[in-house]
């Protein structure tokens, strides 16, 4: 049933920034590398859409800044749950990561003195630390990485969806995948696999991600027996444009540009409200507070017509917007948004703070599987501060590539298990069967998105989360088994691809909702209205998720100690 | 918002002898980008439509580029208007419908 078998040393799944960085590093260690992406390698993923910042503690803008301060900010922004070793690694290696990416050809904005421009994005940064390139920071990073992939002639295959990891005993040794363009089934035999599949914004009806952010990597890793960590922490931002629908979910990152004393949002009664929701009483609170505050106003009947709040155009001048956010502003204007008038903004899913649990070498908890970027978990804990994502993907991308190359070198491609491959082929092809008469994937996806929005979004509670978990279990048992696609041809069949994606989405939705149910407190990006307080007595713990036979097990585990705190004592 | 007609290029090299154009009338709640209009057809009218659901909504990835009324444009950056015709760029090998082989 397999149409094509490919052997490689290191298989990289994902064609965004983390995946490409890992591929370059693995190649440079001497490994044969293959990159697979669901989209076009190097032009998919979220890295290319990065706007605002990339945190690196050069200390140019303020000489008091250094890696230790960056580390402390990261731990604070993770509300005590970030893995201290991982946070230390990516803050300590951030400067080297910039040196590397500059040596690959990326250029960032510089001051007249030749030093990189460093800005302070918000209160999560003690000192100005974020480097930038206009308002399109992702572009130079991706261009540089694409150039290195081309220069090394690293093999890559576009529009390939991985549906299952293959194992040899306890070790990951390859994958099964579907080729969208050819309609073919692939078996990839690999010495090591680097997961770099990004996040899961598409689980929600409004999000800032691309539509292919369907959480595949989390589901693949769970199914292979790897641990997930901290996935209940879903960062919802509150400054996505809600209207018109053409730009619904597009981020409008005004919060970094506000005039002094500005009160940027007001409700349907014309009242500013952000300060009421911020423990520190700020009208420009930490970014995850925005969504919560807007949610509160909407629920109290003071929301805007499309379920959000109004951005006050008086809080940032159009001149500042055009100077600092030219591409974002032009994009919104092109769809008729008048930047000098009130704009409806609201919540959008932005980033899964946790993911596949990794160690210092980006290794997962199972042999042969490594993970980098949003699909990985540990470096951020309960919240990710703005600008830390790019730092992390470049540092751990390099580490993952090196470690995967070494692992593959000492293990080689594993033997394939014919029975497992046959079963997986059957599962994939069964979606095309005319025996199936249930709803199409997009219908099931819409159901899932509504459940996530209603029960697993900005504000959560026991009853809603139980409902969501039960519904996801039923979807796995019933809806996914009858889900049908519009036609049975294999070539270029997007409905088929979406069916496979939706299957992974339900699996990961269940994991996220289950972890959110387990965590009976509020912390960072996770807010429970029935447990609104931070509870350090009971919950200075990470929730580890593992699949046991067909059940998901949720295990709270005491956090690794922060070595800095120990020294201070 | 009034209903609008959009015309899409359809071609399945596996079974069609030549390409054809198919009209769809859609009636969304509000304005849509061209890419959203294609997605609307796929969701609500015709699940057999093949397209690339790649939408960076920043105009940076370029994947959604198509011929709109004869001009190559990013479908995520253009508003869908009544009567538009959307097709792949000329001289590209078609995988199916709006999906053509990449370089």
Q: Which structural category fits the helices and strands of chain B?
A: mainly beta
Number of domains of chain A: 3
Overall number of domains of chain B: 1
Strand runs of chain A, count? 18
Q: Please tell me what the overall shape of chain B is.
A: globular
CATH architecture of the largest domain in chain A: 3-Layer(bba) Sandwich
* CATH fold-level label of the largest domain in chain A: FAD/NAD(P)-binding domain
Summarize the structure in words.
- The complex is a heterodimer of chains A (569) and B (103).
- Chain A contains 17 helices and 18 strands.
- Chain A is an alpha/beta fold and 569 residues long.
- Chain A has three domains: 218 residues, FAD/NAD(P)-binding domain (3-Layer(bba) Sandwich), CATH 3.50.50; 111 residues, Flavocytochrome C3, Chain A, domain 1 (Alpha-Beta Complex), CATH 3.90.700.10; 102 residues, Methane Monooxygenase Hydroxylase, Chain G, domain 1 (Up-down Bundle), CATH 1.20.58.
- In chain A, strands 1, 2, 5, 6, 7, 8 and 15 form a seven-stranded mixed beta sheet that branches. A five-stranded mixed beta sheet of chain A has the order 16-14-9-17-18, with helices on one face. Chain A has a four-stranded antiparallel beta sheet with strand order 10-13-12-11, with helices on one face.
- In chain A, helix 4 packs across helix 11.
- The N and C termini of chain A lie far apart (61 Å).
- The relative contact order of chain A is 0.17.
- In chain B, strand 6 and strand 7 form a beta hairpin.
- Chain B has 103 residues and is mostly beta strands.
- In chain B, the strands form two sheets. A five-stranded mixed beta sheet of chain B has the order 2-1-5-3-4, with helices on one face. A two-stranded antiparallel ribbon of chain B has the order 6-7.
- Chain B has a single domain, classed as Beta-grasp domain (Ubiquitin-like (UB roll)).
- Chain B is built from one helix and seven strands.
- Classes of the chains: A alpha/beta (569), B mainly beta (103).
- At the A-B interface, helix 10 and helix 15 of A face helix 1 of B.
């Amino acid at each position: 049933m397999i149409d094509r078998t490919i052997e490689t040393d290191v298989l990289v799944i994902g064609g965004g920034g983390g995946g490409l960085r890992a591929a370059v590093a693995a190649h440079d260690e001497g490994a044969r590398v293959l990159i697979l992406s669901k989209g076009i390698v190097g032009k998919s993923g979220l890295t290319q859409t990065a706007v605002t910042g990339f945190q690196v503690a050069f200390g140019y803008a303020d000489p008091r800044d250094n890696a230790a301060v960056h580390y402390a900010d990261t731990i604070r922004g993770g509300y005590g749950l970030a893995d201290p070793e991982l946070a230390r690694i990516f803050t300590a290696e951030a400067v080297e990561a910039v040196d590397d990416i500059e040596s690959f050809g990326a250029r960032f904005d510089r001051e007249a003195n030749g030093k990189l421009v460093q800005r302070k994005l918000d209160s999560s940064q003690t000192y100005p630390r974020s480097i930038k390139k206009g308002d399109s920071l992702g572009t130079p990073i991706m261009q540089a990485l694409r150039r290195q992939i081309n220069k090394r002639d690293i093999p890559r295959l576009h529009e390939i969806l991985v549906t299952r990891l293959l194992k040899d005993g306890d070790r990951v040794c390859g994958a099964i995948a579907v080729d969208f363009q050819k309609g073919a089934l692939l078996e990839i035999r690999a010495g090591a696999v680097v997961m770099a599949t990004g996040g899961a914004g598409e689980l929600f009806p409004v999000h800032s991600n691309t539509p292919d952010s369907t959480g595949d990597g989390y589901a693949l890793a769970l199914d292979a027996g790897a641990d997930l960590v901290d996935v209940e922490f879903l960062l919802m931002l509150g400054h996505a444009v809600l209207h018109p629908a053409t730009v619904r979910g597009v981020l409008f990152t005004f919060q970094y540009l506000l005039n002094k004393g500005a009160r940027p949002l007001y409700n349907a009664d014309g009242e500013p409200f952000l300060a009421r929701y911020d423990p520190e009483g700020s009208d420009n609170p930490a970014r995850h507070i925005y969504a919560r505050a807007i949610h509160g106003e909407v629920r109290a009947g003071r929301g805007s017509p499309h379920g959000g709040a109004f951005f006050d155009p008086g809080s940032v001048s159009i001149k500042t917007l055009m100077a600092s956010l030219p591409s974002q502003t032009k994009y919104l204007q092109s769809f008729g948004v008048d930047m000098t008038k009130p704009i409806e903004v609201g919540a959008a899913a932005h980033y899964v703070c946790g993911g596949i649990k990794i160690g210092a070498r980006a290794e997962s908890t199972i042999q042969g599987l490594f993970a980098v970027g949003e699909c990985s978990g540990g470096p951020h804990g309960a919240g990710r501060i703005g600008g830390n994502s790019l730092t992390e993907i470049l540092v751990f991308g390099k580490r993952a590539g090196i470690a995967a190359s070494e692992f593959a070198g000492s293990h080689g491609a594993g033997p394939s298990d014919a029975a497992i491959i046959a079963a997986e082929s059957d599962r994939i092809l069964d979606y095309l069967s005319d025996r199936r008469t249930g709803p199409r994937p997009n219908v099931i996806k819409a159901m899932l998105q509504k459940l996530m929005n209603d029960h697993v979004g900005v504000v959560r509670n026991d009853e809603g989360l139980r409902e969501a978990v039960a519904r996801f279990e039923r979807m796995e048992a019933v809806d996914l088994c009858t889900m049908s696609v519009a036609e049975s041809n294999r070539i270029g069949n997007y409905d088929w691809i979406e069916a496979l994606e939706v299957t992974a989405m339900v699996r990961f939705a269940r994991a996220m909702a289950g972890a959110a149910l387990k965590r009976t407190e509020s912390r960072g990006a996770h807010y429970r209205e029935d447990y609104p307080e931070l509870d350090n007595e009971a919950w200075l713990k990470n929730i580890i998720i593992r699949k046991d036979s067909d059940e998901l097990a949720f295990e709270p585990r005491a956090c690794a100690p922060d070595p800095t705190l120990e020294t201070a004592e | 918002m009034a209903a609008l007609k959009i015309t899409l290029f359809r071609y399945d090299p596996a079974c069609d002898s030549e390409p054809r154009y198919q009209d769809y009338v859609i009636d969304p709640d509000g304005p849509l980008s061209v890419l959203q209009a294609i997605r609307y057809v796929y969701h609500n009218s015709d699940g057999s439509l093949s397209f690339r659901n790649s939408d960076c909504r920043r105009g940076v990835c370029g994947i959604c580029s198509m011929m709109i009324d004869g001009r190559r444009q990013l479908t995520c950056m253009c508003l869908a208007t009544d009567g538009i015709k959307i097709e792949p760029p000329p001289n590209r090998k078609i995988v199916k419908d709006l999906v053509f082989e990449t370089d």
